[in-house]
Write a structure and sequence with these properties.
Creatine Kinase, Chain A, domain 2; alpha+beta; Ubiquitin-like (UB roll); single chain
Length: 449
């Protein structure tokens, strides 16, 4: 879809507003609604101003010193959101509206380096300098509840009713409670231009997964944030609630597995080598070795919140060790496919992952392995989590923050300003959590301590 198409829609009185949005540090869409004439006549070409704090806040929209963007010190000024015409979507559940994603730039046109979309773009450009391009797909899980968001809020998210009653992993029955909503989600996303591949129930009651066709990495991430935002809007319209939390309770968590493949800029399958015994090229071996070498240092970009690490626990069907394996779901890096479909599946990110940052971490790690020609250790053929000799992922956000801000590799490949910015985001999350009194503490200590 192009701006010309939007003008035609506006001329036919079918388009009233255009939402201009920027993905924030959490991967949420922040922005404003613009009248269609104003967008088409001015903002599409010149951009639209928005407050700089949008890229320096926590989940509660609180900001403060320590970020690379210090909104208080700078007087809460503006940067410019420059719409990307390749991202235009028409969300059918919001009639008369188009949505376009934007890149944040400073008034002089300089990119805002800590913007998640910019972080990914820089590493895709580095990849292109090697004659390579990244193709990705994300597998995003979520829980569906019969309660509305307002009811869930009033109940403080306690005693909510999941839309299915038991484990429906791959099941073709027991989906009656979830199917009306997810059918609408599938239909609306397809109409908006996303190409669905598969959809199915998952393990936790109320859990569902919809997988869309892989694409160029930036487009996949753009589709991801559009999808996630749209799912919440569609659920609200149906009087339901969904959550992408990595760990809502003690049951199975919500993952966001990222499938990543490299191609030559001419489309060649550079990861595959039919002459090799395992079908993998030397480049792929270096690429996987880079994932393993950088994973602990880069975990923060894939698991950015306190809750992320509740999912990364032994027995939770999520990785805790660092290793790789061929079609081995106990490893954080799983190799699957063959030929053009040969790829890695990154199993660390959860439903809260910012897709731009998680993908940038995987690309940067792979490039580190390629540029340093790192050797690849032997794969794990069995349960990697049961091997006591396997190095471990950071087990908490505190540990991940320590690895990230003390990583020489991260400082070199991302830049000290980016490292400091996302370190501050983690510190802000930790400070908020450590100052909160939880239900666990009340239950444990109200009477017995």
């Amino acid at each position: 879809m192009t701006y010309a198409h939007l003008r035609a829609e506006a001329d036919a009185d079918r388009l009233e507003e255009v939402v201009v949005a920027v993905p924030d540090l959490q991967g949420r869409l922040q922005g404003s609604r613009l009248s269609a004439p104003y967008f088409l006549d001015e903002a599409a070409e010149n951009g639209f101003n928005a407050c700089v704090y949008l890229l320096a806040t926590d989940a509660e929209m609180n900001t403060g010193p320590g970020y690379a963007i210090d909104a208080w010190r700078s007087g809460f000024g503006d940067f410019v959101l420059r719409p990307d015409p390749t991202t235009v979507r028409m969300p059918g559940w919001d009639p008369g509206t188009a949505l376009v994603l934007a890149d944040a730039t400073w008034p002089d046109g300089t990119p805002v380096r800590v913007a998640p979309r910019r972080v990914l773009r820089e590493h895709l450009d580095r990849l292109a300098a090697h004659g390579l391009a990244a193709l990705t797909g994300t597998e995003l899980e979520f829980l569906v509840f019969d309660d509305s968001y307002a009811d869930a809020w009033d109940r403080r998210y306690q005693d909510l009713r999941t839309a299915t009653r038991y484990n429906v992993d791959y099941s073709l029955q027991g989906l009656d409670g979830v199917e009306p909503l997810v059918r609408r989600i599938r239909r609306e996303m397809t109409r908006a231009g996303l190409r669905m591949e598969t959809a199915r129930g998952e393990v936790h009651p109320g859990q569902y997964e919809i997988v869309f066709r892989y694409d160029e990495a930036m487009k996949t991430c753009d589709n991801h944030v559009f999808f996630k935002n749209g799912v919440k809007q569609l659920a609200a319209a149906e009087g339901r609630a969904v959550t992408f939390m990595p760990k809502f309770d003690e049951g199975e968590g919500n993952s966001c597995h990222i499938h990543l493949s490299l191609r030559g800029t001419d489309g060649t399958a550079v990861l595959a080598d039919p002459a090799a015994e395992d079908g993998m090229s030397d480049l792929m071996r270096h690429f996987i070795a880079g994932q393993l070498a950088c994973l602990a240092d880069f975990t923060l970009l894939m698991a950015p919140n306190v809750n992320s690490y509740k999912r990364l626990r032994p027995g939770a069907f999520a990785p805790t060790g660092i290793g790789w394996g061929r079609d081995n779901r106990t490893c954080p890096v799983r190799v699957v496919g063959a030929g053009h479909s040969l790829r890695i599946e990154h199993r660390v990110p959860g439903g809260d992952a910012n897709p731009y940052l998680a993908t940038a971490a995987a690309v940067a790690a792979g490039l580190y392995g390629i540029e340093h020609e790192l050797p690849l250790p032997e794969p794990h053929a069995s349960n990697a989590l049961a091997d006591p000799g396997v190095p471990r992922l950071p087990a908490t956000l505190t540990a991940a923050l320590h690895r990230w801000e003390n990583s020489e590799i991260a400082a070199k490949v991302f830049g000290e300003d980016v490292v400091a910015h996302f370190a501050q985001a983690a510190r802000t999350e930790l400070e908020a959590f450590e100052g909160a009194v939880t239900d666990w503490e009340r239950i444990r200590g109200f009477e017995r301590l």
